[in-house]
Amino acid sequence: MPLGQELAPHLPFLRRYARALTGNQKEGDTYVRATLEAIVAAPEDFPRDVDPRLGLYRTFQAIWQSASVDTGVDGGQDNSPTEAIAQARLARITPRSRQALLLTAMEGFTTEDTAYLIGVTPAEVDALVAEALAEIERQTQAEVLIIEDEPIIAMDLETIVRDLGHGVTGVAVTRDEAVAQAMARRPGLVLADIQLADDSSGIDAVKDILAQFDVPVIFITAFPERLLTGERPEPTFLITKPFQRSTVKAAISQALFFDGATVPA
């Protein structure tokens, strides 16, 4: 089978990882395109001694790790706006500990595979994940709006959110209810299902909310491939149903990580 056909089924999920890693759809998808361009330019360099998905992520990691950050700072003690912007951009770079957490908790790689992907030992992966989890424990608490029409799933999400130390502003089951609750009590994070009780859309609910104020959003869907095409504006953070507790935890912490490292205008 041609290499392109082997890699195609894994591209949506690489986009999910790249977007979570960068906190931005456009930037994440750009890294994915750069990965594919590197593979096309030098197919003989693609690691063929491992599973195609593992080789794809390994190539992506090489692109990610080699990408330089242009801070525009000469190393001096510059307190200018340029320095502030540079430092904010540096703060938005996902550290290796969070890469390890995303690869294991969100992408489902084993400790051994993750070690291969980021170039460390399995023991170091365990230490990095523990470091990321410790950082999450220190993370600022947020008030979360849950938009989910399935009661059991909504209860599960609410339990996870509260166990992480966050509050819940409410649970909405329709678009109109979600918008009303957001306006009544502004959340610091939104968890939104795609398909809601009255056949309304969680995406439309979020669009209505974002028209009023900015807030990080995590979408939840049983069909992630439909929102990971890279062909149109799509979610930055996406959780696949059925989800694991660790996946939700990683997604929430990463969304709040970027929300707390906003680049000044």
Q: How are the secondary structure elements laid out?
A:
Blueprint: H1 3-7, H2 11-22, H3 25-41, H4 52-66, H5 81-91, H6 96-106, H7 111-118, H8 122-137, E1 143-147, H9 151-163, E2 167-172, H10 175-184, E3 189-193, H11 202-210, E4 217-221, E5 237-240, H12 245-259
Parallel strand pairs: 1-2, 1-3, 3-4, 4-5
Pfam families: PhyR_sigma-like, PhyR_sigma2, Response_reg
Modified residues (4-aspartylphosphate): 193
Keywords: Phosphoprotein
Describe the structure.
The protein is an alpha/beta fold. The protein has three domains: 77 residues, Rna Polymerase Sigma Factor, Chain: A (Orthogonal Bundle), CATH 1.10.1740; 44 residues, Winged helix-like DNA-binding domain superfamily/Winged helix DNA-binding domain (Arc Repressor Mutant, subunit A, Orthogonal Bundle), CATH 1.10.10.10; 120 residues, Response regulator (Rossmann fold, 3-Layer(aba) Sandwich), CATH 3.40.50.2300. Helix content is 54%, strand content 9%. The chain has twelve helices and five strands. A five-stranded parallel sheet has the order 2-1-3-4-5, with helices on both faces. Helix 11 links the parallel strand 3 and strand 4. Helix 6 runs antiparallel to helix 7. The longest helix has 17 residues. The C terminus is likely disordered.
